[in-house]
Amino acid sequence: MINKRELKEKAKKYETAAKYWKERLYKKERFSKYVKPHEIDVLVGKVVDRYSSARKIYKILNDDKKQEEIQSNILKLKEPSSSQRLRPRKLERQLGFAIPAIISFVVALCFISFNLTGNAIGGVSQNNSNWISVILFVLGMIFSFFYFRNQK
Length: 152
Hints:
- This protein is mostly helical.
- It folds into 2 domains: 4-78; 90-150.
- The protein is built from 6 helices and no strands.
- It has helices at 4-31, 37-60, 64-78, 90-112, 114-117, 126-150.
- Helix 1 (4-31) runs antiparallel to helix 2 and helix 2 (37-60) packs antiparallel against helix 3.
């Protein structure tokens, strides 16, 4: 028969293991560039298993305070974390500025060289074509600025 002291030590080992897996989960979510959802689920499952084992032991020991504490930790883990909420990935954030910058520059080049487009674009005059190209070039510069600022 296992005495209470041994049960408490076993429960503390489970809690320590749960904290270890919880820390690995945090590092994976926080510092990895790409996290697969099933990897997060596996780590959450390991943490919940360890906490559940510790909770069962505290139930045997009639330690209600520890049971509630562990239950609140389990409930916090089951809430969606910041990385699991819908937010754009790094690539999507970068392309959000890169694509409009490239398009603006290309279209500005088309409008600046009036001989290339001629009167094919709705009868736009030379003066209007130059203004459109300047505006698009400035937009391209602004998008490029935001793109390179996000690169840091």
